[in-house]
Amino acid sequence: MNRNDLRKIDFSLLIVFETLMHERNLTRAGEKLFLCQPSISASLNRLRQYFDDPLFIRIGRTMEPTSRAFEIQQNLTPALDTMAAALSHVNEFDPLTSNAVFRIGLSDDVEYSLLPSLLRQLRMEAPSVSFVVRRTDHLTMPNQLVTGEVSLGVCHSRDLPANAKRKCLRGIRPMVLSANSITHDLDLDEYCKRPHVSVSLNGEVTDSIDRSLNSLGRRRHVVLAVPQYSALKTLIEGTDMVAVVPEYVACTMIGQGGLRMDPMPIVVPELELSMSWNATLDNDPGERWLRNRVAHHLSESGKLISSLVTAKRAA
């Protein structure tokens, strides 16, 4: 194909194809692209005619890609990334007037404790911009960045795709949450004696805390594992249970009353909260604005939380 042949192509069809490869469902693809299902079906029919291949075979409720579809995706994704990066250089971004849509991946701890204040700040600067938040973690974010499900992810991250960039925002300092009706100090003996609640997306009841305790010949008893932070305050309040959470989550919860926070009675490895993004969006004006605001806000939040923790320890 030469460049003159490119005039025959409706490039919006390629975005529909890429979305279908990720969602494997016509309805979900339409929701992601803000298109009705008949429009997605019509686009798929045009794609099938153009590539002379079924591209997707319906199996139950999902649309499974053909081998030809996987071959197209392998070549198409980097090409679309390059086009998006090239076009971003000529597009200015004005947060006051933009109606852009940003797709952000946040881990549960960040969504629960840091998103509300971050969103208020973003809405003040960009009143017409829309934000789509997807749940992410160190396991799912690499694929979300590759497929474009999110353009920016904030969580504790590990292995990332080769074309991804990462910026450390702050340390994730663990704190112990408990009901404020119990006033005596939470030393190691008391910590091990109490029943524990663990927040675990995958339902695991052992983690680095248990390994640190085992090295000291101690152990704790996890009586409940929950997948998210939203119910934690209600579960702990008025009981003898304790939970270990990031300090920014602890500050949010004790600010609502009924709970207290204490430093860990043992040393555990401190993780990092990072911001990751696709390198092809490095110079995109809108994405650059968003990254700057996220980094600034979390840095300011970190300073505030650190002062609260220091005051708590001094008391």
Summarize the topology.
Layout (H helix, E strand, L loop, with lengths): L10 H13 L2 H8 L3 H15 L4 E4 L2 E4 L1 H22 L12 E6 L1 H6 L1 H11 L4 E6 L5 H7 L4 E4 L8 E9 L1 E6 L8 H6 L1 E5 L8 H8 L5 E6 L5 H5 L5 E5 H8 L4 E5 L7 E8 L6 H30 L1
Parallel strand pairs: 3-4, 3-5, 8-9, 8-10
Antiparallel strand pairs: 1-2, 5-12, 6-12, 7-10, 7-11
Helix pairs in contact: 1-2, 1-3, 1-4, 2-3
Describe the oligomeric state of these chains in a short phrase: single chain
SS elements, strand count = 12
Radius of gyration: 24 Å
Mean pLDDT: 86
pLDDT < 50 stretches: 308-315
% residues in beta strands: 15-25%
Topology as a string of helices (H) and strands (E): HHHEEHEHHEHEEEHEHEHEHEEH
| Alpha-carbon distance between the two ends | 72 Å
- Secondary structure class reads alpha/beta
Largest beta sheet: strand ordering: 4-3-5-12-6
Helix content: 40-55%
The number of helical segments is 12
- What characteristic shape results from the CA principal axes? elongated
Main beta sheet: strand number and arrangement? Answer: 5 strands, mixed
Model description:
By secondary structure, this protein is an alpha/beta fold. 44% of the residues lie in helices and 22% in strands. The strands form three sheets. A five-stranded mixed beta sheet has the order 4-3-5-12-6, with helices on both faces. Strands 9-8-10-7-11 form a five-stranded mixed beta sheet. The protein has a two-stranded antiparallel sheet with strand order 1-2. Helix 2 (26-33) crosses helix 3. The model is unreliable at 308-315 (pLDDT under 50).
